[in-house]
Amino acid sequence: MDQELLSDTFVDLADTMVADFDVIDFLHLLSDRAVQLLGASAAGVMLADPRGQLRLVAASSEAVRLLEIFQLEGEEGPCLEAIRTGQPVSEPNLRHAQQRWPQFTTAALQAGFTAVHALPMRLREQVLGGLNLFRDQPGPFDPADMRIGQALADTATIGLLHERNLRRAEVVGEQLQAALNSRVVIEQAKGKLAERLGLDMDSAFTTLRIYARDHNLRLSDLAQTFIDSDPADFPGLTPPAHHRHSQ
Question: Are residues 120 and 44 in the same domain?
Answer without folding.
Answer: yes
